Amino acid sequence: MIRSLWRISVVLLVLLSGCAEPAFPRDPDGTLERATNGPLLVGVSSHPPHAEISDDGTVGGPEAEIVEAYATTIGATVEWREGAESELMELMKLGQLDLIIGGLSSDSPWSTHAALTRPYTTTIGADGKAVKLIIAVRLGENALLTNLERFLAAEGLRA
Questions:
Q1: Where are the strands (E) in the chain, listed by range?
Q2: Contact, 113 vs 85, CB < 8 A?
Q3: Distance CA 126, CA 142 (A)
């Protein structure tokens, strides 16, 4: 009897373990899933030389190149939205943006409004001090954050 219960327990354990979805990391709002082969909604605040917006609305600079390269890896098309950091953070809070770039630093005052990637590079600020740059990601969208950070690491982008 005990032997039969043991076998049944093992069989049930094996069957049930195959049914579970990976729980972490995940996006409560499905941002990574939506952006994959779809639009990646990115806010940009002009902050030369890191992120620049030309007169015709074209977004350029190293941060824009990073975002475009990342988007390629997930089959996404970047949809840019220009604005001031405060405006962009509000749009992100409302779920209208996935990422924000624009020379954001690791000591950003926006850390309560957005998840921040690990610093991907270090630059020298106007005051001569080192500044570690980050990309802001919508709060709670941990699958997107993790996927982006893996991309940054694979590209050798670490401060």
A1: 39-44, 52-53, 59-60, 77-82, 99-101, 114-116, 121-124, 130-133, 136-138
A2: no
A3: 33
Question: How far apart are the C-alpha atoms of 10 and 17, rounded to whole Å?
Answer: 11
Residues 40 and 138: beta-carbon distance below 8 Å:
no
Q: What is the reported pLDDT for 24? A: 64
The b-or-e profile of 81-101 (16+ CB within 10 A means b, else e) is bebebeebbebbeeeebbbbb
CA distance 77 to 37: 7
CATH of 22-154, one of 3.40.50.300, 3.40.190.10, 3.30.420.10, 3.40.640.10: 3.40.190.10
- Round to whole Å and give the CA distance between 142 and 66: 19
As a whole-number percent, the residues of the chain with pLDDT over 90 amount to 75
Q: Is 154 exposed, middle or buried (0-12, 13-18, 19+ CB in 10 A)?
A: exposed
Low-confidence ranges of the chain (pLDDT < 70): 1-24
Helix, strand or coil, per DSSP, at residue 135: coil
In this prediction the pTM is: 0.84
The confidence score (pLDDT) of residue 59 equals 98
Domain ranges of the chain: 22-154
